[in-house]
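Changelog excerpt

This revision adds worked examples to the README so contributors can see how folded entries look when concatenated. The first example is reproduced verbatim below.
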Amino acid sequence: MIQKDEQGNPLSGADGEAAAAYTTAQRQFSCYVGDPVATIDAAIARRPDFVMAHALKAYLMLLGAEPAGFAPARECYAAARRAAADDRERGHLDAIGHFLDGNLAQAGRTLEDIAIQHPNDLLALQAGHLTDFLNGDSRMLRDRIARALPSWRPDMPGYHAVLGMHAFGLEETALYARAEAAGRRALEIEPRDGWAKHAVAHVIEMQCRPADGIRFMNENLADWAEDSFLSVHNWWHLALYHLEIGDIDTALAFYDHPDRIKGGRSPVIFDMLDASAMLWRLTLRGVDVGDRWQPLAEAWAPYARSGLFAFNDAHAVMAFAGAGRADLVEAVLAAQEDAMRGAGDNARITADVGRPVALALAAFADGDHRAALDLLRPVRHIANRFGGSHAQRDLIDLTMIEAATRAGDRATAAALVAERADLRPASPLTRMLRDRLEALPAAA
């Protein structure tokens, strides 16, 4: 008897028990809860020729942008290639192979082709969606899921995840009302869907509704904050709302808490990204963060020479520069030079965006605010190429405003604040930035 997943897709090499473990792991992955790696390992141990179990584990290893994930992903890829598979499953393996070769865009395109033929393949949709996130492809974050939606029904397992992904894609393409509605509907179906929670949090951030955001994130807090590998990022969103209204103490408390942003405590890349971004935002506001940069720099240190993801490099430089670790900043820059000479998408992404951003952040930390501003201006409109969300990349705009202000360039600072005020007219932070400009000489 051929086993199938919850959406009816065949699972080559599985028996009933292994298929059940796969279902559990897929549910964990779609909600970002529990330990899907341990769950899928049990399926692999039972049925070593279970192709999609290997594929799911490989995606789990790769989509977190962890350099250490590549070796186990290669093992999964090799094992799955030796097993019998159908065309859909071989498509997944092709996508994983492209990812392992550093060709993220081609991996996303291959997953796109799978989902066109098999729109109920939840893993193809989710792996593709996260690849779009790493590629900074806002339109595909939305349209990849929109294409599949007509093939889904509200009573189908995993429907909440499809809605949550669509919500994030709608948000990243500024369709905020639809995004919020889709995300909230997903949460009604599955309150533990961390991605749907995060999608609504992004809507509220982009619309600058901090009071609404604080209320929303504190609703059903345990659903997203406990046993979730997206909890740090969602705590970061809650901290951003507090930072927006000037509640620095709460933002710092969230940063320091061992179960919230976990500043300097977590070795997980996505957690360290949020920690770096939070400390950098605080520093831009003139907040003395004390010795918080040092443990974060130590956590980033093993990745200084990886050169695999330009987005990671930028956040590592924030930590190293903040901690005064010029040696580690130089290590990142040297790794970027190597990356630009290599193959794969990251060579181009680093050259176009990652390198200028890293140099700008280092210059800013060294007090060369004019250089930081000049380096960021040419890349701010193409910064999506190195991944992340609009909310995460907002750090570039905030750094430019502060660089212009500290460089005494009142005209440029005023222009940048004016464009921000146009998008966030009720923003307390924007008002603060505008008020600070009053102290600068008009002729500067």
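The second example, added in the same revision:
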Amino acid sequence: MSVEQRQDMIIGVVIPLILEHGKDLTSKQIAEACGIAEGTIFRAFGDKDTLINKAVERYLDPLALRTSLGSIDPDLSLDDKLRAIMGLLRDRFSGVIRMMSVLGRQGPPPRREERHEFATIVGELLGPHTAELRIAPEQVAQFARVLAFASAIPAFGDSIPFTTDELLDLFKHGVVQPTTKEG
């Protein structure tokens, strides 16, 4: 196994350990979970903090989210696409907030310049449904992102828990009852 492959394997194992143990994660726990000697960790990364930083960097990389969004079946209905988008966004933001929380990091995660790619991917996915939308598909992406992010913040999302379907209904229909025309 090359150094890069070994590092990749270790990082993949460490991410769930960080989410479980936070900054109290020990090199012994890492070694046991990876099935390697502790010295291998230090040879591959130099120190535990470097390994944790690399794992967090990978976890926060938006590529996995963009890949998942890009793999949503383009033949799905608008409702099913919106449900998939909202579910992926909620999972992503919940995970990011959890990662930052268990490590005791304050403030937003490092800003990435590729945020427009998210809106482009969602815009392309929703493009065939433009006639069904009140706003541009790229705007739908941004509103969905804001709502999913807010729902992932424990202070907002835990007080009155709601499902992705409930969020999606609010997102699609708002909070006002539709008016009916009397004949």
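Reviewer comment on example two: The chain has a mean pLDDT of 88. The two ends are 75 Å apart (CA to CA).
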